[in-house]
């Protein structure tokens, strides 16, 4: 047993320095030089202020914006830190709803959201991503179908022709990566920035 | 289910299979002590470390010496990590000013990372400083994986060689696993991850002003370097609470495919390492085929269940085309999420890109099943291989009983002692999973942690103890596990599942390694053909079924049946 102490000490120290200090710092240094935008979190800036990250969804509630998916993230309750309050798209505390498929809370929430969306859009069904929370609560994307479902509301609020918004969506759809991986999607923050440019022009 | 969905799965599987021979061959050279193409870079480090460790330390070891060295090293790693967790508040690289972690959570987390489980009862971005993530957690991501690989190398030598001290030396295997396999792969993968959008910075967080004028605090950190080893070492502990569902831990469907490759690559390739080292590559392919059959079957069920959507939501006017999207990300969809879930639980990784808790009843059943089958298809790095070799030994024994011959595997006779030790190891799993679940299901303190009622609540408990004992680390994450009860019992379950399993298995290796390898005769049961593959699959399923079917019936199966009646909880 005692004979093992020296190699244990030497290797734990040596490998800790190598894998816990040298390795992450070397990757950090290389990334900062070669890939600064990605390494810093793919931030979007307007002048000096950070508007957000292309990879992280934001909460949109005003009818003039494209809305992202429902988000299940929370934050500590300012009044009582042992409790939490809903805080959609809290990028400091990622989380899913963790509701099971038969949870009454899930069914009730989806029922209310679906009815509201059907009433607003006049559609008969809604795409699944429109009424379900993402795994991270920070999903930056929506399906093209969910984007199109919101055209009527945005056109009315902004006084834009619906087909111009349709065209904006069509131009913003990202297909599957390499044509194979994942699903087609629209980045909500980028779409809303483009929508603002369209409104201004 | 769609054709493009299946194509995605097949492309990733093809990538894994394509790396089996080159990676498996490389690892065979690593464990044979030969020079590799990486020796010019890492050779001096290897020699330096082992020189400092001492001449005596690197001599060949008996099974007991090897096992003791492993235990001492892991105990030291546990103490170091526990200390870092407790005092992170006064250590540097803590831009968000997190306090030290409380004793129960620090115990749970230290056991979790040392045992390659990476169960997380905390949210990474709200609890751990950058120093803890790097010097504490990333290090154990490497070392727990290297420990598993070293043990697998010893187990392979038990069949390949003969002699009391032919199992090798733990310190050498540990060092070579880290330097020649885990570290170089991690460097390449981490840089690829950053290129596809994963952050890698020492900044703590950045404050954004959203388009609606609200403040959004975006947590950042050295993510890519941890993500790479987290997948390669089948660890699974996320930098962020949402793990690889977080867009920073998995920005695109390409990083997603790379992650799935990474978490399967080493475990799958070790079967080829095994085949090469025992001098018969067909033996390795037979083992890999067993793994692929079970994994493929589980994938079909999970993808089918998820792609169909939730009928209770379809009835409300939700279009079922996208499938069950609760707890899934749009960029992945149901195909890439199902494949990830199967790969992460077939290996003992436990990283998630979708919330298993919100899977359909049968979709969530498959990850649970794969964990309970013992994390052997293909299992954690190293631990999966020695785990399935234990099953192979059981299989030849059962086959031997059926035809009335002395069973042997790879020319080594399987006798009473080996069977006793194999069964001892095998019984740890149901004892810990079912025992703890049964107690928790009767304790009000434990039940207060449940997030879902009905059969789903029981599945939460079953999944937690299965995940801990199987050293997986994924969760039905609604369970509020950061309580003294769960932190302590899950910590014990992780310890039992790792070391309670490994010690009898190493004793079995010690018993096998002293036997001479007989030559095959006409009466030898061939262990490289379809009959053997079929028998091993059957033994795995029957063993898992006998142990766990009643619990499954009360959890996911009854939940699936209730879904048809429209019952909610």
Characterization of the model:
Chain A: Its main location: membrane. Chain A: This is Potassium-transporting ATPase KdpC subunit. The complex is a heterodimer of chains A (201) and B (569). Chain A has two domains: 37 residues; 130 residues, no CATH class. The N and C termini of chain A lie far apart (76 Å). Chain A has seven helices and seven strands. Chain A has 201 residues and is mostly helical. In chain A, strand 1 and strand 2 form a beta hairpin. Helices cover 45% and strands 10% of the residues of chain A. Chain B is mainly alpha-helical and 569 residues long. Chain B has a domain of 181 residues. In chain B, the strands form two sheets. Chain B has a two-stranded antiparallel sheet with strand order 1-2. Chain B has a two-stranded antiparallel ribbon with strand order 4-5. In chain B, helix 1 packs parallel to helix 12. At the A-B interface, helix 1, strand 2, helix 3, strand 5 and strand 6 of A face helix 1, helix 2, helix 3, helix 6 and helix 7 of B. Strand 5 of chain A pairs parallel with strand 3 of chain B, so a sheet runs across the interface.
Briefly say what this structure is.
The complex is a heterodimer of chains A (201) and B (569). Chain A is mainly α. Helices cover 45% and strands 10% of the residues of chain A.
């Amino acid at each position: 047993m005692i004979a093992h102490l020296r190699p244990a000490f030497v290797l734990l120290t040596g490998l800790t320095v190598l894998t816990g200090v040298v390795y992450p710092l070397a990757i950090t240094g290389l990334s900062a030089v070669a890939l600064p935008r990605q390494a810093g979190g793919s931030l979007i800036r307007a002048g000096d202020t950070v508007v957000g990250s292309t990879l992280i969804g934001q909460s949109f509630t005003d009818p003039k914006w494209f809305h992202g998916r429902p988000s299940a993230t929370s934050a500590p309750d300012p009044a009582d830190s042992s409790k939490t309050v809903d805080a959609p798209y809290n990028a400091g505390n990622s989380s899913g709803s963790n509701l099971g498929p038969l949870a009454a809370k899930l069914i009730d929430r989806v029922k209310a959201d679906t009815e509201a969306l059907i009433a607003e859009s006049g559609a008969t069904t809604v795409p699944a991503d429109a009424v379900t929370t993402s795994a991270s609560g920070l999903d930056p994307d929506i399906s093209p179908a969910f984007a199109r479902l919101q055209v009527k509301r945005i056109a009315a609020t902004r006084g834009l022709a619906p087909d111009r918004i349709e065209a904006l969506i069509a131009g913003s759809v990202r297909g599957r990566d390499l044509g194979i991986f994942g699903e087609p999607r629209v980045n909500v923050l980028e779409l809303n920035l483009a929508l603002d440019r369209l409104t201004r022009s | 289910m769609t054709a493009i969905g299946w194509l995605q799965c097949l492309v990733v599987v093809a990538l894994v299979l394509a790396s089996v021979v080159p990676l498996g061959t490389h690892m065979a050279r690593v464990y044979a002590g030969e020079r590799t193409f990486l020796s010019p870079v890492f050779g001096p480090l290897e020699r330096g470390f082992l020189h400092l460790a001492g001449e005596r330390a690197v001599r060949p070891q008996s099974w007991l010496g090897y096992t003791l060295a492993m235990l001492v090293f892991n105990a030291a790693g546990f103490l170091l990590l526990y200390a870092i967790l407790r005092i992170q508040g006064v250590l540097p690289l803590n831009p968000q000013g997190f306090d030290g972690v409380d004793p129960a959570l620090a115990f749970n987390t230290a056991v979790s990372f040392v045992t390659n489980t990476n169960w997380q009862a905390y949210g990474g971005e709200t609890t751990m400083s950058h120093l803890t993530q790097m010097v504490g957690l990333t290090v154990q991501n490497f070392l727990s994986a290297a420990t598993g690989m070293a043990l697998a190398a010893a187990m392979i030598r038990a069949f390949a060689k003969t002699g009391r001290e032919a199992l090798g030396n733990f310190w050498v295997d540990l060092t070579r696993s880290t330097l020649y396999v885990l570290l170089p792969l991690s460097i390449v993968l981490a840089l690829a991850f950053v290129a596809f959008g994963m952050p890698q910075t020492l900044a703590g967080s950045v404050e954004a002003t959203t388009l609606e004028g609200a403040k959004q605090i975006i947590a950042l950190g050295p993510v890519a370097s941890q993500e790479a080893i987290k997948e390669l070492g089948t660890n699974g502990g996320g930098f962020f609470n949402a793990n690889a569902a977080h867009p920073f831990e998995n920005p695109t469907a390409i990083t997603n495919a790379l992650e799935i490759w990474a978490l399967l690559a080493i475990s799958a390739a070790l079967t080829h390492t095994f085949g090469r080292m025992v001098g018969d590559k067909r033996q390795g392919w037979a083992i890999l085929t067993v793994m692929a059959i079970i994994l493929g079957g589980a994938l079909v069920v999970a993808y089918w269940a998820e792609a169909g959507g939730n009928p209770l939501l379809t009835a409300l006017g939700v279009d079922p085309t996208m499938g069950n999207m609760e707890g899934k990300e749009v960029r992945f969809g149901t195909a890439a999420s199902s494949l990830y879930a199967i790969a992460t639980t077939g290996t003992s990784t436990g990283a998630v890109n979708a919330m298993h808790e919100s899977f359909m009843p049968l979709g969530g059943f498959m990850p649970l099943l794969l964990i309970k089958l013992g994390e052997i298809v293909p299992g954690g790095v190293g631990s999966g291989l020695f785990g399935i070799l234990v099953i192979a030994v059981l299989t030849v024994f059962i086959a031997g009983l059926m035809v009335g011959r002395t069973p042997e595997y790879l020319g080594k006779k399987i006798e009473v002692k080996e069977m006793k030790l194999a069964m001892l190891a095998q019984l740890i799993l149901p004892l810990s999973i079912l025992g703890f679940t049964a107690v928790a299901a009767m304790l009000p303190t434990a039940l207060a942690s449940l997030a879902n009622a009905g059969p789903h609540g029981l599945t939460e408990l079953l999944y937690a103890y299965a995940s801990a004992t199987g050293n997986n680390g994924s969760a039905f994450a609604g369970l509020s596990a950061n309580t003294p009860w769960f932190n302590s019992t899950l910590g014990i379950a992780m310890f039992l599942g790792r070391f309670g399993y490994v010690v009898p298995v190493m004793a079995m290796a010690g018993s096998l390694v002293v036997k001479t390898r007989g030559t095959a005769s006409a009466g030898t049961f061939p262990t490289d053909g379809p009959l053997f593959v079929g028998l091993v699959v059957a033994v795995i399923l029957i063993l898992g079924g006998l142990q766990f079917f009643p619990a499954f019936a009360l959890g996911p199966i009854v939940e699936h049946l209730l879904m048809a009646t429209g019952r909610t909880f």
